[in-house]
Amino acid sequence: RLFAICQAGLVEKFVDALVWALFPVFLVGRGASLTEIGWIVGVYGFAWGGSQLFTGRLSDHVGRLWPNVLGMWICGAGVAMVVLGTGTLWWSVSAGVAGFGMALLYPNLSAAVADITPPAWRGSAIGIYRFWRDLGYAIGALALGLTASLTGAAEAAFWFVAISMFASGGLVLWLSEETHPRLNPADPPHPPTFDAGMGH
Questions:
Q1: Which residue from 105, 159, 151 is spatially nearest to 129, judged by alpha carbons?
Q2: Hey, what domains does the chain have and what are their CATH numbers?
Q3: Mean pLDDT of 140-152
Q4: pLDDT at residue 58 tops 60
């Protein structure tokens, strides 16, 4: 389960790398002004930040699994929408969809890690998750650059991220399970120890 959550954390950072690095370049190539670019990118940030005011609490009622899975898919859909239409309004809506999806998954991936680990190991588990999540910035930037360079089209990078988000969300659905203690009260797994299997 920790693997499923960590890989989702890594892949979701592809979106941030895309938004801050290639999104403005893509919009410039489509004739958007600097003001329009600032607005569109800002919509993503506001949708992400503002929606977290309730998406975190939502998972306390409906669980972590589906907010995480749907968040990955909705965010991926927003990324794909960018290249399927034109105009400031369309790109703003696309950015808003991506930001809302990010708000669904971002706080709840961390919450899922906390759910499945006992208190004695929780800090280490969250540290492992954050390591892989933040590594996604570097891997995402490299992958986006290679994709755009090899294809000669910024659109390919958007499709790469969208497909990665859908695939990663599918892995979460397949490999993970509901982690909220109230909805799945099974005891969390204990971390491996050096004397495991030694008869102690």
A1: 105
A2: 2-175 (1.20.1250.20)
A3: 93
A4: yes
- Alpha-carbon span 139 to 99, nearest angstrom: 21
Whose tokens are 């994709």? That residue is: 147
Give the separation between CA 137 and CA 135, rounded to whole angstroms.
5
How far apart are the C-alpha atoms of 132 and 134, rounded to whole Å? Answer: 6
**Torsion angle of the four alpha carbons 181, 183, 187, 191, in this order, in degrees rounded to the nearest 10:** -60
Q: How many CA atoms lie within 13 A of 34 on its CB side?
A: 0
Output the pTM of the full model: 0.86
Sole residue written with tokens 């650059």: 145
Q: Give the span between the Cα atoms of 114 and 119, in whole angstroms.
A: 8
Inter-CA distances, 147 with 28, 72, 137, Å: 19, 21, 15
pLDDT at 194 over 50: no
Confidence class of residue 178 from pLDDT cuts 50, 70 and 90?
confident
Give the residue from 179, 189, 187 showing the smallest Cα distance to 62.
179
**pLDDT at res. 161:** 98
Q: What DSSP string runs through 125-150?
A: HHHHHHHHHHHHHHHHHHHHHHHHHH
Average pLDDT over residues 30-55: 94
Place of tokens 């933040």: 134
Phi/psi class of residue 95: alpha, beta or left (left: φ > 0; alpha: ψ in -120 to 50)?
A: alpha
What is the rounded CA–CA span in Å between residue 16 and residue 140?
9
pLDDT of residue 183: 57
